[in-house]
Amino acid sequence: MRIHTGQKPFACDLCGQRFNRKTTLNVHMRIHSGQKPFACELCGQRFKRKTNLNSHMRIHTGQKPFACELCGKRFSHTTSLKGHIRVHTGQKPFACGLCGQKFSHKTHIKDHMRVHTGQKPFACELCGQRFTRQSTLNIHIRIHTGQKPFACELCGQRFRHETSLKDHMCVHTGQKPFACGLCGKRFRHETRLKSHLSVHTGPFACDLCGKRFRHETRLKSHMSVHTGQMPFACDLCGKRFRHETRLKSHMSVHTGHKPFVCELCGRRFSHKNNLNIHMTIHTGLKPFACELCGQRFNQKTTLNSHMRIHTGQNPYACELCGQRFRYKASLNSHMSVHTGQKPFACELCGKGFNRKTDLNRHTRVHTGQKPFICELCGQGFSQKISLNNHTSVHPGQKPFGCVT
């Protein structure tokens, strides 16, 4: 009857909170006394209520009796199921009283409130950095321990964050799940989509091409594409760049600073992108395939360059003699014909070369390195052309036939 009348005759002497049952008051009193009479026999953790102990036991048994009727996912607690249901309904019943932002879980709003208060109660014992959430601290700890618990089942690459693994899987599947609702362009990562949206919605528009930007500084930087202006110059070699970030990245050429290390072979890189590309050597991953011949590549830029073999496109022209080239590197090497410049010098004998590949080939004269191995007899060679010539020594290997 007290449910209908609202009567709560049992009051807490310490805080004044009232209850309609004496048993509920008795349970409440444990908040003040700190009493936790129900202990887990497996791990010793203690609880104020027996229902909490029963729920906790499912951690050990793996029991998940509560199933979602929409997707079949199972949960060990009914509260977890209720929270999950909001993924399907989109319901966000918990609103922040300060900014109005809405959340699907009550725990999320508690975490969000720290944005307003600036409170960061979770501190790293190793470096002192503080965090608003325990889960964020747990992830941060992996920086110190080097732990990467999330492994790709296809190539074995490991990740510190589950979201990083999910993003990585798109490399294997080719899936681009995030689509722009305005132009249909698709992206592997949600961050790339958000960045792309500024092209349509940004308040600062380019008068020449109509491209839009979120920040005026980005628009000013973009204008150099049309003007050809390169305002950022290297003080050491004079090379110029459109963007300050490119200049900062370039400086590692002079300083030799290479902060990104391959954990498998120890090779160091000045840029994280270069490390990521290098990792494909170990994994054998080549996610970019030519649609015309099926050849696969570990970089999109390499695939784009390869496509010129099929199209016959030679976009790079020499301004002095008009000769055209498929690759920019080929044009740069060709320019030494006109200038006589040989920028790549051997550190051991001083001999100069106009191409880095020629320098690398020459260096083997000093090191004795013979990376090209005959599969038939095991003999090594310093140059690939020498290996190709050698194969004719073996019986049945006569690659050059008379046409007539």
Automatic annotation (TrEMBL):
Its main location: nucleus. It is found in: Nucleus. GO terms for molecular function: DNA-binding transcription activator activity, RNA polymerase II-specific; identical protein binding; RNA polymerase II cis-regulatory region sequence-specific DNA binding; zinc ion binding. Residues 10-37, 38-65, 66-93, 94-121, 122-149, 150-177, 178-205, 204-231, 232-259, 260-287, 288-315, 316-343, 344-371, 372-399 form the C2H2-type domain. InterPro entries: Znf_C2H2_sf, Znf_C2H2_type. The keyword Transmembrane does not apply. Keywords: DNA-binding, Metal-binding, Nucleus, Repeat, Transcription, Transcription regulation, Zinc, Zinc-finger. One of its GO terms (cellular component) is nucleus. The keyword NAD does not apply. Belongs to the krueppel C2H2-type zinc-finger protein family. May be involved in transcriptional regulation. This is Zinc finger protein 234-like.
